[in-house]
Amino acid sequence: MVMHNRILLVKNMVCQRCIMSIEDVLKKAHVPYSHVLLGEIHLQEKLSEEQKRVIQKALAGLGFEMIDSHQSALIEKIKFHVIKKARRELDTKENKQNLSVYLSDKLHYEYTHLSSVFSSVEGRTIENFFIEQRIEKAKELLIYAQMTLTEIAVELDYSSTAHLSSQFKKITGLTPSHFKHVGTAKRKALDKV
Length: 193
Prior knowledge:
There is one protein chain. The chain contains 10 helices and 4 strands. By secondary structure, the chain is α+β, with helices and mostly antiparallel strands. Strands 2-3-1-4 form a 4-stranded antiparallel β-sheet, with helices on one face.
């Protein structure tokens, strides 16, 4: 388990609800902490072996996992920042940055190192992961936001609607319009249940 200055690293934390869930685990285990961030628990004191076991078991029950190596921690940080960039949840300056520059700035490593570590562990490139995350956001927008494909392409900073459509079909096997039709039909069917 990686612990630097009483910081535990946690895998699979992606939202505010994750933070609240982990805070609840810590409170129930009577573990004093100063704060919880996405991917990190900042403890007030070192854990006993028994506390570690209790927390690991509770986190696993919620779908979280303690990160036990520097490499795993780096992969999680890469994923976190790629997802934020793909979803355009950054300030204007960071949204405009090239992905490689953005990751290097955030993680303080050369992009070639980040890319090499990510590919060796994940079996895919950072760029492929980034595209997959952008397509996931496009799927959400198609189904729930009632946006046109052109609006989505602009929202996700694609060079053109055709480029978005091409990547969408490559990743999902469906055209965006077919995906929207299928998604809408399934959603209506579920509403009737």
